[in-house]
Design brief:
It is a single chain. This protein is about 35% helix and about 20% strand. It is α+β, with helices and mostly antiparallel strands. The strands form 3 sheets. It has a 3-stranded antiparallel sheet. It has a two-stranded antiparallel ribbon with strand order 3-4. α3 (about 55-60) packs across α4. The longest helix is centred in the middle third of the chain and has 17 residues, at about 90-105. It is globular. The protein starts with a helix and ends with a helix. The model has no long low-confidence stretch (mean pLDDT about 95).
């Protein structure tokens, strides 16, 4: 998801991390056991004079499979659930509206299972997870195609 958001003009930074669980300062090894309650997330800092929250929501939806419960593409477990974590009531309203619009106009079959939840403590992931797509371009490209991400996104969104 860092790659998708980093391409958006107005996005200042993206940080991979964990949110929504009950363990303080979790490690990737802990989160990957699916016992901490965390989801793998991306924290986005953006300039609201250059990009709107609504545009970020659009980018989010177009880069996930909203029909996969507790999974994304070939990654399975509750830590891979899709979700939008909102900071305030305006973000919640916009997230709910974007989901409602998607339900009405979705170009695919299947129920939308993406959660919309109030933010909780964000824990940055370890350094080797940050900007993985730029640090390991060959491995990332292989993962992206081998995991079925590209083909599933085309299937979902056209």
């Amino acid at each position: 998801m860092e790659e998708a958001f980093d391409k958006v003009p107005g996005v200042i930074s993206t940080v991979s991390g964990y949110m929504g669980g009950h363990v303080k300062n979790p490690t990737y090894e802990q989160v990957s056991t699916a016992r901490t309650g965390h989801a793998e997330v991306v924290q986005i800092e953006y300039d609201s004079s250059k990009v709107t929250y609504a545009k970020l929501l659009e980018v989010f939806w177009r880069n996930i499979d909203p029909t996969q419960k507790d999974a994304q593409f070939c990654d399975y477990g509750p830590q891979y659930r899709s979700g939008i974590f909102f900071h305030d009531e305006e973000q919640k309203r916009l997230a709910d509206a974007s989901r409602t619009t998607l339900v009405k106009n979705k170009p695919f079959k299947g129920e939308i299972v993406t959660e919309i939840t109030k933010t909780s403590q964000f824990y940055p992931a370890e350094g080797y997870h940050q900007d993985y797509y730029t640090k390991n371009p060959a491995r990332y490209k292989f993962y992206k195609s081998g995991c079925g991400r590209e083909s599933r996104l085309k299937q979902l969104w056209g």
